[in-house]
Amino acid sequence: MISPGGTAEVATRKPAKGKSAAAKPAAARPASGKPAAARPDLEQVRERIDGIDRQIQDLIAERARWAHQVGKAKGPLRAAIDYYRPEREAQVLRRVLDRNDGPLNDEVLLRLFREIMSACLAQQEPLKVGFLGPEGTFSQQALHKHFGHSAKGLPLGSIEEVFQEVEAGHADFGIVPVENSGQGTIQSTLDMFLTSPLKICGEVELAVHQFLMSRTGRMEDIERVYSHPLSLAQAKTWLRHHLPKAEKIPVSSNAEAARRARNADDSAAIAGENAGHVYGLKTLAGPIEDRPDNTTRFLVLGRELLPPCGHDRTSLMVFVRDQPGALYKVLSPFARHGVSMNRIESRPAHTGRWQYAFFIDVGGHAQDGPVAAALAELGEFAADIRILGAYPVALL
C-alpha cells in the first residue's frame, strides 16, 4: 500500500506453522529470491497525484501574481514589450536545465516553463510577434518554441514584411529563418540587415521534418508537388526516387504549399505536420528530408540591444577596406583575444561594385571583456562595423 508520505509499504506475513519460507512454491517468489513488492493501491496513487496537481496549480497562480507585481514595480509602461526581458528569461530557463534531474527530459521541462512564463507575461498584454506566414509554417513553430502560445502571432507574406512590421512598431518582435544545417544561409534575411536598423534579440534552433501530404492521400494521384525552395532541396533525393516525373513548384512558404494542395487531387505539398493539420491534408510519407539532423536556425528581431545573460552570442556586420590582407586583419583580433568565431558569410554590400560586407557570429556578448577588446582593435582595420545583436544562445 501507499503510506501518507507517498512511499510504498510492503506487507509481510509469517509463514504457516510447520512451513518455512523456503517451502513456498517457486511462483510466490521472484527469481532473485527476494519477496515481491505489493502492488500499489491505484486509488491512493490517484489521490496523491490529485494533491500534487492542486499544489502545482496553486504555485502557478502564485507565480502569476508575483509576475504581475513585477509589472507594478516597473511603473506605468506603454506596452507588453516594455515588460519582456529576453536575457532574464534565458537565465530563468537555464536554471531550469541546471536543476533537472529527470525523469522528464530537458526539452519537455523547457516547453512547460516557457508556456508558464508566456502566460504570466500575457497578463499585462500579449506580445505581438510577426512571422513568415500563413498559418502552419516552420516560422510559426519557432515562434511558439521561443515565445510560447500566449504570444499573438502575426502571419506576414515575406521576410521583408516581417522586418517592416517590427521597424514600424506594429509587431513587438519578429521571427525570420537565417540558415539551414543542410542548405546553408537564407540570403534574403542577411540582405535585409544591410539597410534595417533592427537588432537580433535571440535565436531559435528548430528540428525540421518534412512530410509529403495531399488531399486524397494517394501517391498515384500526384502530378505536381508544391513547397518552399529550401524544402524541395532538403527532400530532393527522396523526390527523385519516389516522384521522379512529378512537377516541383516552388512557393513562398510550406504553409502556402499546403493551402494550394488542398484544392486539387493531383497536387501534393511538402511541409511540416502542423501545416497538414491546419489545411486538412493526409500524410503520404515522412519524414522525407535527406538529412536526419535537418535543423533551421531562426533569428528573433527587435528594436534594442540586450544586456548580457551569461551565455551569449554576438552578430556583426563588417565592411572591409579594399587592401591586401584585409580579411586577415579583421579576423586576427578575435584569435588574439581568444574569442570563438561561430560563422562568417560574405554578401554584396550594395554600396558599390565588388564591395562586400561580412556577417560574423562570435561567442560572447559585445560588452564582455575579450569581445569588447577584439572589437576595439577591429575598428582600426574595418571600414565600418555594426553590431547586429548580442543575445542569448539557443537553449535546445
TrEMBL record:
<dbReference type="GO" id="GO:0004106">
    <property type="term" value="F:chorismate mutase activity"/>
</dbReference>
<dbReference type="InterPro" id="IPR036263">
    <property type="entry name" value="Chorismate_II_sf"/>
</dbReference>
<dbReference type="InterPro" id="IPR010957">
    <property type="entry name" value="G/b/e-P-prot_chorismate_mutase"/>
</dbReference>
<feature type="domain" description="Chorismate mutase">
    <location>
        <begin position="36"/>
        <end position="128"/>
    </location>
</feature>
<dbReference type="Pfam" id="PF01842">
    <property type="entry name" value="ACT"/>
</dbReference>
<dbReference type="GO" id="GO:0004664">
    <property type="term" value="F:prephenate dehydratase activity"/>
</dbReference>
<comment type="function">
    <text>Catalyzes the Claisen rearrangement of chorismate to prephenate and the decarboxylation/dehydration of prephenate to phenylpyruvate.</text>
</comment>
<keyword id="KW-0584">Phenylalanine biosynthesis</keyword>
<keyword id="KW-0028">Amino-acid biosynthesis</keyword>
<comment type="pathway">
    <text>Amino-acid biosynthesis; L-phenylalanine biosynthesis; phenylpyruvate from prephenate: step 1/1.</text>
</comment>
<feature type="site" description="Essential for prephenate dehydratase activity">
    <location>
        <position position="296"/>
    </location>
</feature>
<feature type="domain" description="ACT">
    <location>
        <begin position="315"/>
        <end position="392"/>
    </location>
</feature>
<comment type="pathway">
    <text>Metabolic intermediate biosynthesis; prephenate biosynthesis; prephenate from chorismate: step 1/1.</text>
</comment>
<dbReference type="InterPro" id="IPR001086">
    <property type="entry name" value="Preph_deHydtase"/>
</dbReference>
<keyword id="KW-0057">Aromatic amino acid biosynthesis</keyword>
<dbReference type="InterPro" id="IPR008242">
    <property type="entry name" value="Chor_mutase/pphenate_deHydtase"/>
</dbReference>
<protein>
    <recommendedName>
        <fullName>Bifunctional chorismate mutase/prephenate dehydratase</fullName>
        <ecNumber>4.2.1.51</ecNumber>
        <ecNumber>5.4.99.5</ecNumber>
    </recommendedName>
</protein>
<keyword id="KW-0511">Multifunctional enzyme</keyword>
<dbReference type="InterPro" id="IPR002912">
    <property type="entry name" value="ACT_dom"/>
</dbReference>
<dbReference type="GO" id="GO:0009094">
    <property type="term" value="P:L-phenylalanine biosynthetic process"/>
</dbReference>
<dbReference type="GO" id="GO:0046417">
    <property type="term" value="P:chorismate metabolic process"/>
</dbReference>
<keyword id="KW-0963">Cytoplasm</keyword>
<dbReference type="InterPro" id="IPR036979">
    <property type="entry name" value="CM_dom_sf"/>
</dbReference>
<feature type="region of interest" description="Disordered">
    <location>
        <begin position="1"/>
        <end position="45"/>
    </location>
</feature>
<feature type="domain" description="Prephenate dehydratase">
    <location>
        <begin position="128"/>
        <end position="303"/>
    </location>
</feature>
<dbReference type="Pfam" id="PF00800">
    <property type="entry name" value="PDT"/>
</dbReference>
<dbReference type="InterPro" id="IPR018528">
    <property type="entry name" value="Preph_deHydtase_CS"/>
</dbReference>
<keyword id="KW-0456">Lyase</keyword>
<dbReference type="InterPro" id="IPR045865">
    <property type="entry name" value="ACT-like_dom_sf"/>
</dbReference>
<dbReference type="InterPro" id="IPR002701">
    <property type="entry name" value="CM_II_prokaryot"/>
</dbReference>
<dbReference type="Pfam" id="PF01817">
    <property type="entry name" value="CM_2"/>
</dbReference>
<dbReference type="GO" id="GO:0005737">
    <property type="term" value="C:cytoplasm"/>
</dbReference>
<feature type="compositionally biased region" description="Low complexity">
    <location>
        <begin position="18"/>
        <end position="39"/>
    </location>
</feature>
<keyword id="KW-0413">Isomerase</keyword>
